[in-house]
Design a protein that fits this description.
Distance between the termini: 28 Å
Organism: Rhodococcus artemisiae
Keywords: Membrane, Repeat, Transmembrane, Transmembrane helix, Transport
Order of helices and strands: HHHHHHHHHHHEEHHHHHHHHHHH
Oligomer: single chain
Pfam families: CitMHS
Protein name: SLC13 family permease
Structural class: mainly alpha
Low-confidence stretches: 1-30, 238-272
Number of helices: 22
Membrane topology: Multi-pass membrane protein
């Protein structure tokens, strides 16, 4: 990943042609070009959110308009900001795990895990935390959405508080998204390397994992207490139901149990089907997944930086040679939407660098007497906007813009980047996000959905404030004291 985000804006040694205070060529005599370009970025985000379209595509077009039309940059220089290395990396990772999904390996791994814990209801929230985390680590955190309908049905049939199950899966997706093989981790790791910030991908993943496990434990204390009472009541009702309806006489002095329509086995409750042994291609895919994990962990331990995009394309090539019919459907799983989103944002950030906006933010960070306040503000913005919009988009914008605060504010880079990432992702359980909305919509009990929506909204929006305060106190301040 050494060359990841090579096209990300680089701090130039030469002086920018657009220094602070110079009159802008944009409309309005007061606004400088630097501030105007930043406000245009904010406006495009707002328009994209309101219209529900891919912000990256909008920003790519606007980058050309601002760069060529206002800043008089050559169009080739604007286009060169598009992160080709990042595109290869995201395409390779999502292609490889797309093939794994198409050939049934991902579903088989989920089923195998659920069969081991399906008869132990107390472990189900933790189990679904692990399942969504594992799936989210496979290239795209959004892939964990496939687990969520299963989890919400299990919560209903096992009498688990649906809010607790939703938070368990939301925190699992947040943690898994920061794996070195997933989009959150890819964006942050690449940005840190390009900015020459001493940063460990494994440390980022470890911090995200610990934070989300703590959130799951807190959710269990808040929402899990009524679970056992409800299960006891449900068991009593089931027993009465069996005694009234399910015992039928089949002989003069004998009775037997006839299952009613409400009876379900553990496997039925979990939604598992009947599967035979793993096929050859599925075994090969599992071996490739372990090889990828070993390569990432081993290389990090040795201080090496393998190009994960190349590795995953190579492993995917092996799999489609063994199973050619998975090639077309696997290629269709490439996450072009995310590639265009991140690519457009980074291209526009490149224009911001060229016109001097990054220099302007650096001067502002250097003049601040309380950089922790700016760090807190950035983390709050990350959480608030991410609760309603794209987490990936927030990471692509805020992490590069926070680099001046790191450089001139005296805040350790790894701590600031970790704080931004975690604060942007832990709010994704909000009902305004795709994951929160999916979990609410797929919960079978329609009467419970309004209460679940209210609980998840309170939980998600409270983390907009609690998350940044906790990350400043637990990560950034200790890092500054070291």
């Amino acid at each position: 990943m050494q060359n990841l985000l090579r096209a990300l804006p680089r701090v130039r040694a030469r002086q920018s042609r657009y220094r602070l205070g110079q009159p802008s060529t944009a409309k309005g005599p007061v606004l400088t070009l630097q501030l105007g370009a930043l406000l245009i970025c904010v406006a495009v985000f707002a328009i994209g959110l309101y219209r529900g379209v891919n912000v990256g595509i909008l920003l790519f077009a606007v980058a050309a308009a601002v760069g060529v039309g206002l800043a008089d940059l050559p169009v080739k220089e604007v286009i060169s900001g598009f992160p080709i290395d990042l595109m290869i990396l995201l395409a390779g990772v999502t292609f490889f795990f797309g093939v794994a999904q198409v050939n049934g390996t991902v579903d088989r791994l989920i089923d195998a895990a659920l069969r081991r814990i399906g008869h132990r209801p107390r472990l189900l929230p933790l189990a679904f935390f692990g399942l969504t985390g594992a799936v989210a680590s496979m290239g795209n955190p959004g892939a964990a959405l496939v687990v969520m309908p299963i989890g919400m049905n299990v919560a209903r049939k096992k009498n688990i508080n649906p809010t607790l199950m939703a938070i368990a899966m939301g925190t699992g997706m947040s943690a898994g998204g920061f794996a070195p093989t997933s989009t959150f981790g890819i964006i942050i790791n690449g940005t840190a390397r390009e900015a020459n910030i001493d940063f460990s991908p494994v440390l980022l993943f470890a911090i995200a994992l610990v934070v989300n496990l703590i959130l799951l434990a807190v959710a269990h204390l808040i929402f899990g207490r009524s679970r056992y009472r409800r299960r006891t009541e449900a068991t009593a009702r089931a027993s009465a139901h069996v005694s009234d309806r399910d015992f039928v006489t089949v002989g003069p002095n004998a009775s037997a149990i006839t299952p009613s329509a409400d009876f379900t086995t553990d496997e039925d409750a979990i939604g598992l089907g009947t599967h035979g042994p793993f096929t050859f291609i599925q075994k090969s895919t599992v071996a490739c997944i372990f090889a990828l994990i070993a390569a990432v962990i081993g290389a990090n331990a040795l201080g090496m930086s393998p190009d994960i995009g190349v590795v995953t394309f190579s492993l995917g090539a092996i799999l489609i040679l063994l199973d050619p019919k998975s090639a077309k459907d696997g290629a269709a799983k490439i996450d072009w939407s995310t590639i265009l989103l991140v690519g457009g944002i980074i291209t526009y950030v490149g224009v911001l660098q060229e016109v001097g906006t990054i220099d302007m933010l650096a001067d502002y960070a250097a003049s601040m007497s309380v950089p922790l306040l700016a760090a807190l503000l950035i983390c709050v913005v990350a959480g608030l906007v991410s609760a309603f919009a794209s987490t990936i988009g927030m990471l692509a914008v805020l992490v590069p813009l926070a680099i001046p605060l790191i450089t001139y504010g005296g805040i350790p880079g790894w701590a600031m980047i970790c704080a931004i990432g975690v604060c942007a992702s832990i709010v994704d359980v909000s009902p305004f996000s795709s994951s929160g909305a999916t979990m609410i919509a797929t919960y079978p009990d329609a009467d419970e959905r309004p209460r679940m929506t209210k609980m998840l909204m309170r939980w998600g929006l409270s983390l907009v404030i609690i998350g940044p305060v906790a990350m400043i106190g637990a990560v950034i301040i200790p890092a500054m004291l070291l």
